[in-house]
């Protein structure tokens, strides 16, 4: 197993650094400076970079990191990724020898068309696809693609630790509560997250089990979620139509 260090970046991004011994792998380094600071402080060598999608706040630090360390760069083959050495499509298993672990690469189009998630050792690195109590915006893909992608992530083992790329949970929970005010698991999470954030602590990682219980975008077949969606989109019946209505509602929330 490896240790995981959370590196805050920009306003609300998280860069995840995985370390084993003196070697590190970093996920979605949008900014190099905070990553270099940790590598230098901890005496680590950067072996690999995993990129989930092409947005600059996920890969903007790649070039600078490569000027310090000759790392391999894994990322979506179909997107423009700086210095990509290991182009991926999803469906592969990659071996990170420096960590001694394999990661399954999962195609999760929706936020962007080539978006990938990495799953291994009970951890999921999912970029801007699944957030705490929410999901990414549809910048490139369709609601159907995002719904399918979230469904693929939701069936991962319940205890999976989800490392997403933004601290959005508290705001997402306000929307979730508007959708499903009768969900007691959700109300408990709202209280817990308020305490966590008041202390200045992170709400990430969280588990797939918690998302299944509280994330409205994973609960499109629940009666209360359907009724709420229909208050915005009366024609919404099946899970995809409910998801589409929720995603549109969230954009305006
Ligand atoms: Zn993004």
Strands, total number: 14
Cα-atom radius of gyration: 18 Å
> CATH topology, anyone?
Metallo-beta-lactamase, Chain A
Beta content comes to: 25-35%
The CATH superfamily title: Ribonuclease Z/Hydroxyacylglutathione hydrolase-like
Bound molecules: zinc ion
Helix-strand category: alpha/beta
Distance between the termini: 40 Å
Sheet with most strands: strand arrangement: 1-2-3-4-5-6
**Net shape:** globular
Top-tier CATH class: Alpha Beta
CATH architecture: 4-Layer Sandwich
Which residue ranges are poorly predicted, with pLDDT under 50 across at least 5 consecutive positions? none
Mean pLDDT: 98
| Series of H and E elements | EEEHEHHEEEEEEEEHEHHEHHH
> Could you estimate the helical fraction of the residues in percent?
25-40%
Number of helices: 9
Q: What summary fits the major beta sheet?
A: 6 strands, mixed
Domains counted in the coordinates: how many?
A: 1
Question: Would you write up a description of this structure?
Answer:
This protein is an alpha/beta fold and 253 residues long. The chain has a single domain (3-252), classed as Metallo-beta-lactamase, Chain A, CATH 3.60.15.10. Helices cover 36% and strands 26% of the residues. It is built from nine helices and 14 strands. It has helices at residues 32-42, 56-59, 62-68, 143-154, 169-179, 184-198, 208-214, 223-232, 239-252, and strands spanning 3-9, 13-20, 23-27, 45-50, 72-76, 86-88, 93-96, 101-107, 116-120, 123-127, 130-131, 134-135, 161-164, 206-207. It has a six-stranded mixed β-sheet, with helices on one face. A six-stranded mixed β-sheet has the order 7-8-9-10-13-14. A hairpin with an 8-residue loop joins strand 8 (101-107) and strand 9. Helix 1 runs parallel beside helix 3 (62-68) and helix 8 (223-232) packs across helix 9 (239-252). The longest helix has 15 residues, at 184-198. Zinc ion (ZN) binds at residues 53, 55, 111, 128. Zinc ion binds at residues 53, 55, 111, 128.
